[in-house]
Specification:
The protein has 117 residues and is an all-beta fold. It is built from no helices and ten strands. The protein is globular.
Length: 117
């Protein structure tokens, strides 16, 4: 059974930083790329970032490029999302997903990020 446990969200002021973590289990973590996605209130899910199996290739949506950094630690079955210079429109529920099932498949509860002015 796949499990994703996201953490690290919170409330911050614009310009602040947060570091999200996601611990994955129940499948071959090292066999698949991973992604972070988010869903803002009243909107559909949005892909944010993706990382290859070995962590060498990382991709970002243009809205977060230069501000967010995604990494992974295959020894801990964990992916991270370092978020700097947060903006109000980064406010959303963030969740991690694997490439096996697709980025739109949300297995965990997600972690809420709220950015205020």
């Amino acid at each position: 059974q796949v499990r994703m446990l996201e953490s690290g969200g919170g409330s911050v002021q614009a310009g602040g930083s947060l570091r999200l973590s996601c611990v994955a289990s129940g499948y071959d973590f090292m066999g698949y790329g991973m992604a972070w996605a988010r869903q803002a209130p009243g909107k559909g899910p949005q892909w944010v970032s993706g990382i290859s199996r070995d962590g060498k290739h990382v991709y970002y949506t243009s809205a977060v490029k230069g501000r967010f950094t995604m990494t992974r630690d295959n020894t801990k079955n964990t992916v991270y999302l370092q978020m700097n210079d947060l903006r109000i429109d980064d406010t959303a529920l963030y969740y991690c997903a694997n490439d096996r099932d697709g980025w739109e498949k949300r297995w965990g509860q997600g972690t809420q990020v709220t950015v205020s002015s």
